[in-house]
């Protein structure tokens, strides 16, 4: 077992003296300092995330998200979003680590203007049937539990094509935004532009990327002409996603830590949908309880179907459909389905592609024999 002691040889263990204090003052006057005074803090033995586990109740937030419809116009807000902040990361508008999420609402017949930014974005629809987005001219229609991506520096705009008072019941659309804004800002790399024509012109038929690249086991012949770093498939509907999970459950027991889990992938490469964020959907079978593990990287979960309990860093989080919760980097976490008769599904997105690209990726299983972590009482 690894011993963690800052008094051991190899760690900074200088004791302050009057002479050293005077020396530090001279360095400070020149905007310098002695590394050994902060070395152990900036090079900890293992990740020390500032974020903490948090759950955001959809039932509590939904009325406030809808209230924004009458308080703020889409044109004035740019995007009418209720942001979800981690109490320890509010200063950088982060939900966990260097990831951000929020709940965006659009009323029937409403559309938002086109823009693009350095940050990559993704969408997970929570409710409403009229949602659409246009990404670099390609229009996509999405509904509840559908997943869509807006890769960095792509022109995009959104709307709700429902017509209030029309023949079909039309209501607001609420979807979850996920972005890497805190990461981009931490790297001093943000850019933002408003479309010169305010709105884009649609290119081709609606859902063209889905028709072209959504066949799963088939890919367009000659598709090697695609050289962008993100997936050419921009929308991932719920129905085939759920069917894939059910089929996988027939063939495998899945992961002891995540049940039946699948990654939304680039159909041409099999890799993550975007360079900085990946997304997963997992299925917990009736009565299933997983073992705990931890990973380098931050995760944001959304309960897509059913209800259950997750233990994150010893904290119990009870969730039901629409609830959102976060798992900080290197935090132990495990999940359980509350139902003994029906499955439950969790959508999640993370910054794992960044961790892997930088060589930071690491994963561990909980060391106890039963694989479950102790729970802090509520």
Can you write the helix and strand succession as a string?
HHEHHEEEEEEEEEHEHEHEEEEEEEEEHE
**How large a portion of the residues is in β-strands, by DSSP E?**
25-35%
How many strand segments?
Answer: 22
The strands making up the biggest β-sheet line up spatially as 1-19-16-21-14-13
Q: What is the rounded Rg?
A: 23 Å
CATH first level:
Mainly Beta
**Overall geometry:** globular
Number of helices: 8
Q: Any idea what the CATH superfamily is called?
A: Jelly Rolls
Mean pLDDT, all residues: 94
Low-confidence runs (pLDDT<50, min 5 residues)?
A: none
Q: What's the domain count?
A: 1
CATH architecture: Sandwich
| Category from helices, strands and their pairing | alpha+beta
Query: What's the end-to-end separation, in Å?
Result: 31 Å
Tell me the CATH topology: Jelly Rolls
Helical residue percent band:
10-25%
The largest sheet is: 6 strands, antiparallel
A few lines on this structure:
The chain is an alpha+beta fold and 378 residues long.
Overview of the molecule:
This protein is an alpha+beta fold and 378 residues long. 17% of the residues lie in helices and 28% in strands. It contains eight helices and 22 strands. It has helices at 18-29, 39-42, 58-71, 74-77, 181-186, 208-213, 238-251, 352-357, and strands at residues 55-56, 81-84, 100-106, 115-117, 121-127, 131-135, 138-141, 147-150, 156-160, 173-179, 192-194, 235-236, 260-263, 278-284, 293-295, 299-305, 307-312, 315-320, 324-327, 333-337, 344-350, 363-365. The strands form six sheets. It has a six-stranded antiparallel beta sheet with strand order 1-19-16-21-14-13. It is globular, with a radius of gyration of 23 Å. The mean pLDDT is 94.
